[in-house]
Design goal:
The protein is mainly alpha-helical. It has 3 domains: about 100 residues, Orthogonal Bundle (DNA polymerase, domain 1); about 150 residues, Orthogonal Bundle (hpI Integrase, Chain A); about 40 residues, no CATH class. Helices cover about 50% and strands about 5% of the residues. The chain has 15 helices and 5 strands. It has a 3-stranded antiparallel β-sheet with strand order 1-2-5, with no helix packed on it. Strands 3-4 form a two-stranded antiparallel sheet. The relative contact order is 0.08.
């Protein structure tokens, strides 16, 4: 019957672990090294030990659901519960792999991962986010550290960590006040890997006069460091290096940020700074622009989002906060138009006072 419907799939004895190994190898040409390493780690650590010995065609939605439950209950280190985000990552890899087995390889008739039941998400409190005031306090405190410029540029451009670590002086136009983001650096298996940006393209990001001065000071200090070790200074054009001229390891700024925050909180009585991640500096940049009224497509281009819909989805909460102001803008524009149409008098139309009253009372003048 399935053969008549064009859905017949030959019986295949390939095991899950063998298929996933082949699938990862096949994707090595089109997937970024760091992303592929993440896929491989998830598969080898969480999937293969549990369902790797099953035949691929024998996997049912219940098996996948059971895998997720087992991981959430005790899939972490020393039998501790695994985080929901990691289980979601396992789900994403399996969904893609089994989908390829169905559509590309035609080894299975349907994708059991799509019908698997994932445990309900727990309510997660939104972490506190810095505003311009908190950012200013942190940057003033971090001025004494040699990676101050890194944190400043992350907050003032919204660039990702890997994009900044790949930034070269040839990509910095101080006179034209812009930086060119055209690649990303990461570390895979202890080796520094340079690839494209997350979106795959390059983008020019404008910088302000203060950031120009910060970069000028950073370049001057880097020149002084180069004079200290002279011929031992590596031949490289990177903006961010160690004191010995080597590329900065990606985890260095990520681990340094919370340490600097803790030092600030221990020595300042102006109020503690909430602890945030390095990537949150990108969010501070985006939310500041959106709350200032910058169009979403402009913010998306600055962040390197291929589609403004990504920006809309990630920062929906910020856009929602703008809704009251948008309503006020519409009301004011209509009131101004009515005023202009009546030669400055609104005695026979809807007045500004009536619009303001309707906003307060919740009444409406009509459909």
């Amino acid at each position: 019957m399935r053969a008549r419907r064009g859905r017949y799939v030959d019986r295949n004895v390939i095991l899950v672990r063998d298929y996933l190994a082949d699938w990862l190898t096949a994707h090595s040409l089109e997937t970024k090294p760091k992303t592929l390493a993440g896929y491989r780690w998830l598969v080898e650590r969480y999937v293969v030990p549990r369902i790797g010995s099953m035949r691929l065609q024998a996997v049912r939605p219940s098996h996948v659901s059971g895998l997720y439950r087992e991981l959430l209950d005790g899939g972490g280190r020393n039998g501790r519960p695994l985080s929901r985000s990691t289980v979601d990552s396992v789900h994403a890899v399996l969904r893609k792999a089994f989908n390829d087995a169905m559509l590309s390889e035609q080894i299975i008739e349907s994708n059991p991962v799509l019908r698997a039941k994932r445990p309900r998400k727990d309510h997660v409190e939104v972490s506190p986010m810095w505003g311009p005031a908190e950012l200013g306090r942190f940057l003033d405190h971090a001025k004494c550290h040699r990676l101050f410029t890194f944190f400043h540029l992350a907050a003032f451009t919204g660039a990702r960590r890997g994009e900044l670590l790949n930034l070269a002086w040839s990509d910095v136009d101080l006179e034209g006040r812009s930086v060119l983001i055209r690649g990303s650096a990461s570390v895979v298996d202890g080796r520094r890997i340079v690839g494209t940006t997350k979106g795959g393209g390059s983008r020019a990001v404008s910088i302000d006069a203060l950031t120009v001065r910060v970069l000028q000071a950073h370049r001057a200090r880097q020149a002084e460091e180069r004079l200290v070790i002279e011929s031992d200074w590596p031949d490289s054009d990177l903006v961010f290096r160690t004191a010995f001229g080597e590329p900065v390891f990606p985890d260095t700024p990520s681990q340094l940020l919370p340490k600097l925050i803790d030092r600030y909180n221990a020595t300042n009585a102006a109020g503690p700074l909430p602890r945030i991640r390095l990537h949150d500096l990108r969010h501070v940049h985006a939310t500041t622009l959106l709350l200032a009224g910058e169009p979403v497509h402009v913010v998306a281009a600055r962040l390197g989002h291929a589609d403004p819909s990504v920006t809309l989805r990630v920062y929906a909460h910020v856009i929602q906060d703008l809704a009251p102001a948008v309503a006020d803008t519409v009301a004011q524009a209509i009131a101004d138009a009515i005023t202009a149409g009546n030669g400055g008098s609104v005695s026979t139309g809807v007045s500004k006072e009536r619009v303001a009253h309707d906003q307060v009372s919740g009444e409406t003048a009509g459909d």
